[in-house]
Design a protein that fits this description.
The protein is mostly helical. It contains 4 helices and no strands. It starts with a helix and ends with a helix. InterPro entries: Transposase_11-like. It comes from Nitrosomonas communis.
Length: 74
């Protein structure tokens, strides 16, 4: 895998995080808080991608988990 492919993967990841988590609007700047939140968002994204019971997009799954505690813990 060359550098061009790696860049495409990074761009796709950034796009997914921005669409699903509105990452670009995050203004966290103190200490390591921005990096810590990025790690949490990556973990959440991996959990959302692993969830296969609902055939909807990542953003919808995230919102559904926020609205429905039963879906969140399932």
């Amino acid at each position: 895998m060359g550098c061009g492919r790696h860049g495409a993967i990074e761009n796709n990841l950034h796009w997914v995080l921005d669409i699903a988590f509105d990452e670009d609007s995050n203004r966290t700047r103190k200490g390591h808080s921005a990096a810590n939140l990025a790690v949490i968002r990556h973990i959440a994204l991996n959990l959302i991608k692993a969830e296969k019971t609902s055939k909807v997009g990542i953003k919808t799954k995230r919102l559904k988990a926020g609205w429905d505690n039963e879906y969140l813990v399932a």
